[in-house]
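Progress report, Aim 2. The chain analyzed during this reporting quarter is listed below.
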Amino acid sequence: MTKYAIILAMLVCSFAYSQNTLKIIVKDNETRQNLTGVSVQVHNTTISGTTDNNGFLELNAIENGIQKINFKFLGYEEFILDVIFPRQEDEVLEVNLIAREEEELDEVIVQSTRTSRTIRNTPTRIESIDAEELDEKANMKPANVSMVLHESTGLQVQQTSATSGNASIRVQGLDGRYTQLLKDGYANFGNFASGLSILEIPPLDLQQVEVVKGPSSTLYGGGAIAGVINFISKTPKEKGEYNFIFNQSNIGQTNIGAYASQRKGKFGYSILGLVNFQKAFDVDHDDFSETPKSHNFTINPRLFYYPSESLSLMLGNSFTKTNMEGGDMHVIDGKADAYHVYFEKNKTIRNTTVFELDKKFENQNSFKLKQSLSFFDRIINVPDYEFSGINLNSFTDASYVINKEKHTIISGANLVYDNFEQRNSGILDAKSFTAGMYVQHTWDVSENVKLENGLRLDNVSYSNINFSKNRTFFLPKISALFKINSQWSSRVGGGFGYKIPTVFTEQTESVQYQNVMPLQNVEAEKSIGGTADVNYKASIFSDLKISVNQMFFITKISKPLVLENDTDYAFFVNASDPVVSRGFETNVKFIYKEDFKLFARYTFTDAQAKYLTGNQFLPLLPKNKVNLALIYEKENNFKIGLEGYFTDEQFLYDGTKTPAFWELGFMVEKTLWKNFAFFINFENFTDTRQSNYKRVVNDPHNNPTFDDIWTHTEGFTINGGLKIKL
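Predicted structure tokens for the chain:
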């Protein structure tokens, strides 16, 4: 009996000895920061765990021999380490993970702040829509970027015409005139040119879109009260890029586009060409078009010269011509009579020439000179009325960036000239000239704290036929980034903004500027606002990753410019009380095995016009919006996406309330022979459209009026096509 007891004891001791303990601490390979939430697993076993707030983890019951230990963490390269057991149990194994160079959001180099920093090291809150998402949205609408913006959190594409489809973009519920649109940092889309801006920017040549929400006037001046949207073009690489797209929809839209770029030695080029055709489409058979008959042509060549590795020059020209005709289908078909007379025509020519010089110095400092000249000619025709004019815009910006070990300082000056001349009457002629100086300082206090502050001084002269004014604006800004640990971070920021008066707004666009009087005795609008957010990312299991962004915002606009009407005319006045927009955005992203991606986004906006008595709503603004997207993708093989969007009730200008609604979409893309991809998109297959609730067009038929546009007018659409990437 004693012999068996001794043998059993020996077996127990042997088994206990073979059950090893491994103590691990995981750090960032570059910053040496402890990483919280790293998923660690012993290969081919159920032994696993995640690191704590100190980057530490203890694994038990590991058998003797060579064991493979697997390390996974969002934003870092997966790492497998062979460990020989037994080993000294008190010894702590240090593992250093390497951050991925191409992590989708954290490693994007942002351009809108001009600091050449990644998003995760930039104190200013920036949302980046990357090339992959732009490519996906191009499947849905290759003609322009409206779909890219429509499906982004906190952004709203507001249609301004029931028959021609003109639209503007709102950020955080504020009118489109408070958001500054940029193309590669050039501000050429303001005032009269703004009504069709997003309809004339194609996505095919874009590398990314950067969205800065909240006051952004330090670097970009007036008009950036609600934020800035910067559309950034691709630049040529040594390996040539040649992309083509062919698209056709069931409502008569045809898109043919091509993009090519390459750098060879000291020279490079890029060229974009796009042709869009659209047949007039009447989905509800009320004789009026939901989408206009149109054709649009864009050509955008750019030449690059690199005299040395530290100096580059770029010269480009973008030309767009658009003709649109909406209204009564009989008139569009050339069959007008006494009953069928209404039409709305838009003819535009937009030409923008840009020049850029970029010089980098040995001490890592840099100098950049940007110059653009934009010409926009537009003619609007409706029965017995024409409004037309030419908008000329010149933009010059020179900046110098100083890079130190822990400091980045940007200083610069710019000149902006804007002149609108109305044909025939000249009653709405207006011009402005802005001379501005700015400085911005980014300080890396530590690896975990980064501060940014800026100051801008603008002197603006603006005038029309009634008055001439000169104003000086003092615009401070501050923001901060706090990296709490590898999982948690936070940004806060705020600043001032302004917008000089203009008659070109969403409301006046919707009536083709008929009976709008020139500005008189009005002042510039001024704002103060800020944002704050919290970010969290982690691996829930070894194959499931989550990232969360929770952002809060508030903007107050003093002396807002308000359109009022008397019997015959519409005119603008400064309201005595402000407009206040506040709310929050929630963005959640799940990634399972890198193939399944689920995006859940929610926006709450409470925007009020304090100058109103009673209901102080801002019209055409839902308080609640939900964006959902589920995507399954096998890279270079196929992609399937299902999207759902909920829009809450909205108030119209007459005080009535719209119903809430859902819209759903489905997309499939299949890649063949590596370079060819076929796609089909079922947009709004629930056929959500405004005419399902009430006709948009009101009688009389030969002199109609139109309801405010608060949802889709065209309903369910199908489009599909071919993409070629060489």
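The radius of gyration is 29 Å. The chain has two domains: 2-97, 233-725. These observations will guide the mutagenesis work planned for the next reporting period.
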